[in-house]
Amino acid sequence: MFPVDESKIPLVLVACGSFSPITYLHLRMFEMAKDQIEEEGKYELLGGYFSPVNDKYGKKGLASAVHRVHMCEEAVEKTSDWIMVDSWEATNPTYQRTAVVLDHFNQCLNGSEGGGVLLSNGQVKTIRIMLLAGGDLIESFGVPDCWVVKDLHHILGVYGCVVVERTGTDVYNFLLSHDVLNQYRKNVRVVKQLIHNDISSTKIRLFIKRGMSIKYLLPNEVIDYITQHKLYLD
């Protein structure tokens, strides 16, 4: 694979989460991040991945990994030529921490034979991997016992993070107040929402349970899948 601009750093974004179900906000996060990355001009964005969490995460309202992976695939198949779905985390026999998931992507993209990006001079350039996250996930970094501290150092120090602000979150203030985030602030890029969107999977599940319409909140293919498999009715 040859990059379009060899002077830039090749970049892949990875979004870890429940995606139960995936919504237009999840998709928009990638597009908003892409706009800012292209405007900065430092990176060449090669692709993005949804990595649905493992069933053993045990979060309330979590549909099975098989369903969540399929819904993510339905969401991107006809709508994006650069966003993909990776099922390694979801289908693993055990729960995998976010730091381990990013290591998995690093191994797949850079560690194996043929990894990295081949330049025209024959040299190989390492692909930068960054976590794509909403402001709510970043604020969870400050919740006691929610994250292993060494994992935060690994995620932010080795990979870095692109944070999309969400309604009601003050990412800049949190970056300043959180010791680990502040330490690696140069590895954190904040993307402002110019059009505020507060669609949440929790609200979608509630709408479905109450028999309310979810049209125009998520792709039709995902709505059809939810209807076909009778998800989120309980």
UniProtKB/TrEMBL annotation:
* Alphabetized UniProt keyword annotations: ATP-binding, NAD, Nucleotide-binding, Nucleotidyltransferase, Nucleus, Phosphoprotein, Pyridine nucleotide biosynthesis, Transferase
Q: Which InterPro entries match?
A: Cyt_trans-like, Euk_NMN_adenylyltrnsfrase, NadD/NMNAT, NMNAT_euk, Rossmann-like_a/b/a_fold
UniProt-listed GO biological process terms: NAD+ biosynthetic process
Q: In which pathway does it act?
A: Cofactor biosynthesis; NAD(+) biosynthesis; NAD(+) from nicotinamide D-ribonucleotide: step 1/1; Cofactor biosynthesis; NAD(+) biosynthesis; deamido-NAD(+) from nicotinate D-ribonucleotide: step 1/1
Q: Which GO terms describe its molecular function?
A: ATP binding; nicotinamide-nucleotide adenylyltransferase activity; nicotinate-nucleotide adenylyltransferase activity
Q: Which GO terms describe its cellular component?
A: nucleus
Look up the domain of life of the source: Eukaryota
Q: Which residues form the Cytidyltransferase-like domain?
A: 14-205
Top-level EC class as recorded in UniProt = transferase
Q: Which reaction does it catalyse?
A: nicotinate beta-D-ribonucleotide + ATP + H(+) = deamido-NAD(+) + diphosphate; beta-nicotinamide D-ribonucleotide + ATP + H(+) = diphosphate + NAD(+)
Pfam annotation, one family: CTP_transf_like
Q: Where in the cell is it found?
A: Nucleus
Q: What is its EC number?
A: 2.7.7.1, 2.7.7.18
The entry assigns this protein to a family as follows: Belongs to the eukaryotic NMN adenylyltransferase family.
PANTHER family assigned: NICOTINAMIDE MONONUCLEOTIDE ADENYLYLTRANSFERASE, NICOTINAMIDE-NUCLEOTIDE ADENYLYLTRANSFERASE
Q: What is this protein called?
A: Nicotinamide-nucleotide adenylyltransferase
